[in-house]
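User: Run a structure prediction on this.
Assistant: Running it now.
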Amino acid sequence: MSAQQRRAVERICQSGRQVDVLVGPAGAGKTTTMRALRAAWTAERGRGSVVGLAPSAAASQALSDDLGVACENTAKWLHEYDHDRTELRRGQLVIVDEATLADTVTLDRLTGIAAGAGAKVLLVGDPHQLQSVDAGGAFALLVDRRADVPELVEIHRFTNEWEKDASLTLSRGDVQAISAYGRHKRIREGLTDEMVDAAYVAWRADCAAGRASILVTESARDVRALNERARAERLLLDGAVDHREAHLADGCRASFGDVVITRQNDRRIRTVRGGWVKNGDRWQVTDIRRDGSVMVKRLDARGVRTVLPPEYVAEHVDLGYAVTAHRAQGVTVDTAHVVVTSSTTRENLYVSMTRGRESNIAYVALGQPDDSHSTPEEDDVTARTVLYGVLQHSGADLSATQTIEAEYELHGGIDRLAAELETIAADVQHERFVDLLRRSGLTAEQHAAVVEPPAFGPLTAALRRAEAYHHDLEQLVPRVVSRRGLDDADDIAAVLRYRVDKVAATPPRGCRIRPRLVAGLIPEPLGQMSAEDRRAIDERKELIESRARALVEDAVASGEAWTRRPRRDHGEAWVDAPTTVAAYRDRYKVMSDLLVGGAAKTEAQRADRQRALSAIRIAGAAGATERAVASPSRKAHAISAP
């Protein structure tokens, strides 16, 4: 057991909390930690002091195998409790594994029962993996709210060192994971049918080579097609066909040697070692009886056997060569081959791409991303753009509290606040700018063309920027109008906007007053306006600046890459610049570790990008001055020496 795992056990045992949480990403050794915790708790409290629960029967069986104690699924345990057939007692430890798959109501009941009995509950899971199909989010909320949650971050599963870090990056939805997997040739791309075929061929080759391998796809149609193909090729390679077949629930058939999966818990169907058939168990068919019942052996180290009745086979058994991400969670194999489409969620991708010890390969089907996904560019779709969209698309449930916060995040983002501020400004300053242009030297016909939407909007934004840089619009506008003729201009407003931007990109010569930019980025609307309009603008100004400051604090606290180099290079001068950069990143949803990300997509973004870069340059110049003052040259020392 590692030092990190040992510390986690100690913190849980000594926390004094009634509900504790243990977080561990895929392959981090949660099982080892839980086993050590069970041993420590039992040594202190005696036999029977540890109770194991999990949201599914298959997960509870896996937990039982890991802990060496009888475990149950949460629904069954609550049913037994409601009928007075089980209970908790003071001092017991209730370990709930795969807690992200448990719905909030279930966790609330369990923790309430435990609190009443004086027992302790430990929720174990990974908030980045798959969530409950019912209302969930409780586990993630606890993790988010507690600063001292024991977390296992040392990954033990993967053979390759780089994949340990890459899997953590992937779990967070960090787009840098795409580059990591790409560099190590773990991403394929092509048309959907090509990728499904490529994943299948690679999976089949691994199986033929004796590797434990898993084939994952999200489409029910693809799962069935791959299962039928796998069975057909198996029969062909075996060189013999067993004419006795069982008809399965998915419309396929199975015979001797096929892999099948059971889809429903049934405690009446017992195994030879005292267990029972569970939803999600995978089996190999060993015989088809004349009455239609199917003899099977479970595909795990124990290899337990049972006989599935014909009616159960017809209703609850499918071929099990290809599986979905939900079926893959909890499985560890040598290699994983994963078909990824634009509808894949971040959690599904993370779970699927962390099943293999030696290799995990994504076969990215290219197609136009759907409305749930965003891509960074409007260029042709590539594996990178599809994966970018997948990482932005979380399928995880949020708690009620987190939902409120997410709504605030959506409506309180700088992109939304800036849009509101500019909308108010456009309305407030409309008549003023119309009148200003009327007196600028334009003809009546030219003026009418300029103030018509949509041409007028970008021009007023340019005028607002010029005024924020302390240009006198009463002088500036007539000057740019008279600078050259406008008779041959197709879009007079666009020409004027270009001229204003060119002249007013910097403050007037000799002006040392800082531009009136909200968070160093967004021009502040100036001029006469009503008290109500001024208040509305000031409110949004304060919200934008406070959010930018909060984003900087969070980024620095979490060690985000974009905050490191500037602080190292610029020292104390790195004061105002980060709020401008943070505002830019939030407004344009920059995900890259680079300060301002890639190239701008629009003229407005390009101007904002330049302002953010300018803030960095100013900080750099100030930092150089600070360093020169703090560390004068040797020559300067010599001159000043007596």
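DSSP finds 25 helices and 21 strands in the chain.
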